[in-house]
Amino acid sequence: MFTSAATSFRVFNILKCSKYTFLRTTTYMAAPPSTTVCSGALSIDSSADASPSSGDHGRYINEARPTSPITISLQEWQAWGTDSPLPTQVAEIVEEMIVSETESDAQMKFGGLGGKLKGDFKTQEDKKHRAKYRALDDSEQKLHFFSARQIACRLLGSRGYLCQKCWLPLEDCMCSSVVPCSLWHRMRFWLYMHPKDFLRQNNTGKLLWQVFGINAATLCIYGIAEHEEIMWKAFMHSGRNNVWCLYPNKNAPTKSVEDSFNGNMSTSFLHEPHSTNSSEIMNFILIDGTWSNSAAMFRRLKERADLVWGEDLPCISLTTGVSAMHKLRPQPSWDRTCTAAAAIGLLDELHLVSEFESLELNKQAEAVENSVDVLLASLTGRRLRMGRSITRRLRHHDDIC
């Protein structure tokens, strides 16, 4: 999550030019219909491409109850926006839930905001998983279990309902309207995402890999050990001087983009042809979660940086203004912005640094900006079509899933 001191010209354009400028308040997206999952009654068609084209809404088939449990395949997992292996603990929890459903009289049902577990099966599973969580002595194990549980429930609850690329209901898929763009080859975004934001329809971090691809904008889920190890392995290879976190760290000096990069980059580094050397990549961490969760996420990054380098993680502050997405999702204050808007602000501000001017980072920012407008239009259209009010409401849920 990100804070800002002033309003940039580009973000002002997002607000000014949007077709939905009349929407002044924020709302949560419409809840999905209640879905019953009977041991994988909805599963990915194995004959379909796991990474569909921009116009592909995803292919699903109905199957009779199989003789063995249906788990999450690697193909299905990676279609949600990652090239990582399926996390071991996520796979274990999914299989445990499906086995429990086959042994229980209650069926696995999902519905409501966030596609949470519902009904008698939820009651049974919550008791079992809370007991398991309390039995864990180590805080690290508890975090891993919590995150894996969140991801497992979202994977099962979204099967056959959400498009795997844009995370919107299939009937509202926006993929055909998103125009891909190449990010400068020496730059990489890391979307450090809270598990409760995974598969969230109004999440904007997903737009970065929709626009730039998963190798230029990489998903790393907080508390998923395999993801965090992949990210930190890349950071250690690049070195501390090539890693920055876009976060307002109040306990350490925070530099602006101009202070961090003006006069500090060599011409050869900026303008050499494409290089596959990962030690020459500039890594930017975007913390993708609610403001209430972001402090713990940043603290985890800071502790790991201290363990690896013995120093704080370098932080950058932006002057990005209010995002258009304030209209459809609550923020604690109007000077804080969404993940995509932070990426737009970074690219725009880098473009203003003389050494970066020829890289056309402003055009790459514009591509993300356009995708934000597409998402805003899709989410707004869905709510209006369903006859739901557009009001700014804050909700708090204590559900384990």
From TrEMBL:
This is tRNA-uridine aminocarboxypropyltransferase. Its EC number is 2.5.1.25. GO terms for molecular function: tRNA-uridine aminocarboxypropyltransferase activity. The keyword Disulfide bond does not apply. InterPro entries: DTW (IPR005636), DTWD2/TAPT (IPR039262). Pfam families: DTW. Keywords: S-adenosyl-L-methionine, Transferase, tRNA processing. GO terms for biological process: tRNA processing. It catalyses: a uridine in tRNA + S-adenosyl-L-methionine = a 3-[(3S)-3-amino-3-carboxypropyl]uridine in tRNA + S-methyl-5'-thioadenosine + H(+). It is an enzyme of class 2 (transferase).
